[in-house]
Amino acid sequence: MESKTIAVLVLLSLCGAVMCQNNTTTTQTPTTTVITTTTVPTTTATTQQTTTTAAQTTTSAQTTTAAQTTTAAQTTTTAQTTTTAAITTSNTTVNGTTAAAVTTTAAAVTTTAMATTQAPPTPKPDTKYEVIGENGTVCIVAEMQFELDIVYNLQAPQDATARQKVTAANITAGGSCNEGVTTQYLWLEFNEGINGSWTLNLTFTNQVSYDGVTAQAATSYKLDNIELDYVIDPNYFDGPAETDIGKRFYAEFKPSENEDTAVNVSASQYYTCSERLSLGDADDTQIMFTQLKFQAFRDTNDADFKGQEVKCDSSSTGPSGLKDYEIAIIVIASVLAVIIIVTAVACCARRKRKDYSSL
Q1: Closest by CA position to 227, among listed 271, 259, 176, 188
Q2: Which residues, in sequence order, are CB contacts of 150 under 8 Å at separation 6+?
Q3: What are phi and psi of 73, to 5 degrees?
Q4: Which residues are paired to 154 by β-bridges?
Q5: Distance (Å, rounded) from C-alpha 308 to C-alpha 298?
Q6: Do the Cβ atoms of 305 and 293 come closer than 8 Å?
Q7: Which residues pair with 219 in a beta bridge?
Q8: Is 127 helix (H, G, I), strand (E, B) or coil?
Q9: Cα(133)–Cα(186) distance, rounded to whole angstroms?
Q10: What residues contact 354, with CB distance under 8 A and at least 6 apart?
């Protein structure tokens, strides 16, 4: 009985010891970390530097007397825009120290509007010309553009020639109506240079034909002759012979020899051709017309084309003097000739191949 009592006491003692140990572990004191933030006040030395800087800014503001130069802008007659920045005053307090007020005035800015002038368009050259008679009537009206293809002698190599295309410039027109006469003239002067200007003289002739049946007269006219008078001028020719410089040369063209211009036009009609016309020998000097239109032997005071137009042949001539359809025929014939030759060669080659295979 006593042994049991002793055993129970021992167990109770052990349990008490364990409980004491647990109470000691759970009652640990927590660690608390205290963070202390200390604000360092701004030193008085820094405040003094700020005050000193503000004083320097105030001194700079005193130099704003440059704004007085805006009086020069008042003398500007053109539109001007003057912009003045608003006055800004700021007081800054740092640790009880008040910085000086800073005043800034921007100098007046004057903007002068400059007018932009566009270059005038290049005027188109005059292509319409008229001849006025003594009684005030416009006897000839013509429109045209023309280019010259002139053969001339070169300085080097000796006895060599070249072709030079020359475009007429600064053209002035004149002429003669020759009232009561069957011939009228249109003169064109252009390309002023050494030894005077170049001239192109167009001669129109008038003829009267009678109908044997009705005995009525019919009047018609045509462009009968063209004469060119030009000067060998280095301004228009490349490397001309020195012995020819300044000399005048003459060339004549016969419109009656060209089926496009050998047209008799009734007195109540006018001639027009929008194609390119070439007059002259292909191996010599030529003149090329484009947009050619004329009416002669008129008796009105205006310069409008009257009556019905008479058109040239629709086929034009090129620098070679050939018609477009003539050039087309030559091209087609050449192509056919090439095809025939190629076919003949192919047949011969095939026949020879058969002969070799038979052997």
Answers
A1: 188
A2: 163, 164, 165, 166, 230, 237, 251, 285
A3: -65, -25
A4: 240
A5: 14
A6: yes
A7: 208
A8: coil
A9: 12
A10: none
CA distance 166 to 146: 9
Residue with tokens 């572990």: 25
CA gap 174, 185 in Å, rounded:
8
Query: How far apart (Å, rounded) are the C-alpha atoms in residues 357 and 355?
Result: 5
Amino acid letter for position 357: S
Residue with tokens 């000086």: 100
Structure tokens at 122: 């290049």
The answer to whether the CB of 40 falls within 8 A of the CB of 46 is: no
Summarize pLDDT for 220-251 with one digit per residue, the tens: 999 999 999 999 999 999 999 999 999 999 99
Residue-range domain boundaries for the chain: 128-327
**Amino acid at residue number 71:** T
Tell me how far CA of residue 345 lies from CA of 307, 339, 353, in angstroms.
61, 10, 12
**Residue 110: both structure tokens together:** 């004057």
Q: What CATH number has the domain spanning 128-327? A: 2.40.160.110
Per-residue pLDDT tens for 188-205? 999 999 999 999 999 999
Closest CA to 78 of 118, 107, 111, 117: 111
Nearest one of 164, 176, 173 to 197, comparing CA atoms? 173
Tokens of 145: 């553009």
Output the pTM of the full model: 0.54
What the block records as the tokens of 162 is 């070249």
Measured distance CA(40)–CA(44) in Å, rounded: 12
- What residues does 161 pair with on adjacent strands? 153
Tokens for 228, please give them.
């060119």
Residue pLDDT, tens place only, 305-341: 999 999 986 444 444 445 555 666 788 888 889 999 9
Burial 185-207, CB ≥16 within 10 A → b, else e: bbbbbbbeeeeebbbbebbbbbe
Q: Tell me if 246 sits within 8 A of 194, measured CB to CB.
A: yes
What lies within 8 Å, CB to CB, of 125 at 6+ separation is: 169, 171
- Taking residue 236's Cβ as centre, other Cβ atoms within 10 Å add up to 20
Spatial distance between the Cα atoms of 259 and 316, rounded to a whole number of angstroms:
10
Nearest to 104, CA basis, from 66, 136, 149, 64:
64
